[in-house]
Amino acid sequence: MLKKAILFMVISAVAFTFLNVLVKSLHNFSVYQIVFFRSIGSLFFTLPFLLKNKISLKGNQKGLLVLRSVFGLASMMLFFFSLKYIAMGTAVSLRYIAPVFAALFAVFFLKEKIKLIQWLFFALAFSGVLVLKGLDNELQIEGVVFALISAVFAGLVYITIRKIGNQDHPVVVVNYFMIISALIGGVLSINNWINPTGIQWLTFLSLGAFGYFAQLYMTKAMQLGETNQIAPLKYLEVIFTMVIGSLWFSEDYTLWSVLGIGLIVSGLVLNIVTKQSKK
Fold first, then answer.
1. CB atoms < 10 A from the CB of 134, how many?
2. Domain span holding position 178
3. For the whole model, what pTM was predicted?
């Protein structure tokens, strides 16, 4: 069971990596158009699933479902914007600060408590951010800001999903997200629409597939294995993305970049392991 969970998480990390690569390769297109195709592609999977299993598309907690979708859309757009300015591995690492923001929001909105040792690990992760921007002069500030604000909205997504709980099917939650993202992304991309040609069509259509299966296999992995054993493996995405970014896009990572990314990932992994082991 554990081996299968590990395999599923690795597959998820690979799928997320290729999603990042595809988005980066579409740098000539507007972020809104990329969001549109990313969302439409996933709807080809979510809608048939819900209809086949006779699950209501409306959901039970419509207000929270819409709110989660808006937060998710903002996070996705900002992350895609960040990829236009900074290396993929750096952008992914900064986005993964989201659990720190989620924990902070949980203190205020869900009245949860954070252990002292967790604050230490959060500080370790944030020190990585400071190393990245403070000591790596090659990083563009726009990309860093976009990625960090994306992480803030991702943290709000986590909190909203916690509030939704088991009241709505996970695919209903994702379906809401994709419908709202497709509508808003489609409208915003009208003025700057560029018709894809040749292989660009395949790239656009692949966005939704990679995004859907990345989420699917991550969910399957978390269902099969213990969180403290499986969750840290999602940070393989950072390593995979850095390697492919270097080979495919000739992205350069300075020593400070690698150190900063290492601090971020270490702090987040230690937080997951500590939080789960003491439950």
1. 12
2. 2-277
3. 0.88
Number of domains in the chain: 1
Q: pLDDT by residue (tens digit) across 114-138?
A: 788 888 988 999 898 888 876 656 6
Q: Helix (H, G, I), strand (E, B), or coil: what is residue 215?
A: helix
Q: Which two tokens stand for residue 149?
A: 């604000």
Report CA Rg, the chain. Answer: 18
Total Cβ atoms within 10 A of residue 167: 13
Quick check: 205 and 41 in contact, CB under 8 A?
A: yes
List Cβ neighbours of 74 (8 Å cut-off, separation of 6 or more): 150, 153
Length of the chain as a residue count: 279
Concatenated DSSP letters of 109-152: HS-----HHHHHHHHHHHHHHHHHHHH-TTS-HHHHHHHHHHHH
Please tell me the predicted confidence (pLDDT) of residue 226. Answer: 63
- Is 34's pLDDT higher than 90? yes
Neighbours of 104 (CB within 10 A): 15
Instruction: Give the model's pLDDT for residue 182.
Output: 96
Q: What does the CA dihedral 267, 15, 176, 76 come to, rounded to 10 degrees? A: 60
List Cβ neighbours of 201 (8 Å cut-off, separation of 6 or more): none
